[in-house]
Amino acid sequence: MSALRGIIAVLWLAVGWSVCGSGPAYAAEVAGVQIADRVEVGGQTLALNGAGVRTRFFFKVYVGALYAATKATTAAAVYDSPAPRRMLLHMLRGMDADTLYAALDEGLRNNLNAAELAAHRLPIEQLGAIMKSIGTVRAGDGIAIDFLPGSIEIGVNGKVRGRVEGAAFGQALLKVWLGDRPADAALKKALLGD
Fold first, then answer.
1. Tell me: domain 24-191, CATH 3.50.70.10, correct?
2. Could you tell me the pTM of the whole model?
3. Distance between CA atoms of 164 and 126, rounded to whole angstroms?
4. pLDDT at 142 over 60
5. Can you give the C-alpha Rg of the chain in angstroms?
6. pLDDT-derived band of residue 4, with 50, 70 and 90 as boundaries?
């Protein structure tokens, strides 16, 4: 009887593995969030470059995950890549769109000089309009910022919410997380695989 139970248990495990094997593979768990090891962006498979937690005043705001075509350990390698990239923000707390956009705007102002801000005025306004149209995001929501050749695409929970044209703005926006004055220095290190 116990041998029969053992065989049944092994069969259930085999069935479970075959069913679970078809789901996404996870590379890491950060702050309780499962981070996929690969994503599809612009018809290309990207691998997880790094992931970490964005904190502000001791509060955990989101888990950030950076995906790239090839492993990058420097910000310059991420900026200069012609391949698609994705910055994924998995929200750990609710936030209204104005607050979320204000944080991105602050990151741009901290990492761009006055001439660069002026040069990117139109895409910054377009980004603001897209972010504000999102409304309130809740804990568990995922915001994907896809850096494509010539544009940036913003999506929430798998649904595209808008697009900003301009490859140069993509490099500027990545500086929010990877610039000399990033939103969170510990997150920057984690995104670059440190």
1. yes
2. 0.83
3. 6
4. yes
5. 19
6. very low
Q: Alpha-carbon distance 188 to 78, whole Å?
A: 12
Q: How far apart are CA 72 and CA 81, in angstroms?
A: 9
Q: Quick: pLDDT tens for 37-96.
A: 999 998 899 999 999 999 888 889 899 999 999 999 999 999 988 899 999 999 999 998
Q: Distance (Å, rounded) from C-alpha 141 to C-alpha 21? A: 25
Give the contacts of 192 (CB within 8 A, at least 6 positions apart).
49, 50, 66, 72, 73, 74, 75, 78, 178
Q: For residue 34, how many C-alpha atoms fall within 13 Å in the half-sphere facing its CB?
A: 6
State the average pLDDT over residues 145-156: 94
In degrees, rounded to 5, the angle at the alpha carbon of residue 188 between the alpha carbons of residues 80 and 88 is: 75
Task: State how far the Cα of 76 lies from the Cα of 149, in Å rounded to an integer.
Answer: 17
CA distance 70 to 54: 23
Contact 139, 32 (CB under 8 A): no
Q: Give the number of residues written for the chain.
A: 194
Beta bridge mates, 154: 145, 162
Give the whole-angstrom CA distance, residue 90 versus residue 124.
Answer: 22
- Domain assignments of the chain as residue spans, ordered by start: 24-191
